[in-house]
Amino acid sequence: MLYYALVFLVVALIAALFGFGGIATASAGIAKILFVVFLVLFVGTLILRAVRS
Q1: Distance linking the first and last C-alpha atoms of the chain
Q2: Closest CA to 27 of 42, 45, 41, 7
Q3: CA–CA separation, 4 vs 34, rounded Å?
Q4: What does pTM read for this prediction?
């Protein structure tokens, strides 16, 4: 999932470079959402592993 967040971030940066504002904004928003989901899943997994041990 982190891979997809990075892909959308790169797409947003390239789109912004070429002046496509709408595409850059949408890609950056998707990248932010995927990154937050990744962080929540990562922290949840860390907590579950700590509780199990």
Answers
A1: 26
A2: 7
A3: 7
A4: 0.71
Whole-Å CA distances, 37 to 33, 42, 46, 52: 6, 9, 14, 22
Tell me if 31 sits within 8 A of 5, measured CB to CB. Answer: yes
Each residue's pLDDT tens digit, 2-36: 788 888 888 888 888 888 888 888 888 888 998 99
CA-to-CA distance for 30 and 12, rounded, in angstroms? 9
Give the ranges where the chain is alpha helix by DSSP (H). Answer: 2-17, 21-52
The pair of structure tokens assigned to 33 is 């959402």
pLDDT of residue 38: 92
Mean pLDDT of 36-44: 92
CA neighbor of 27 nearest in space, from 8, 46, 10: 8
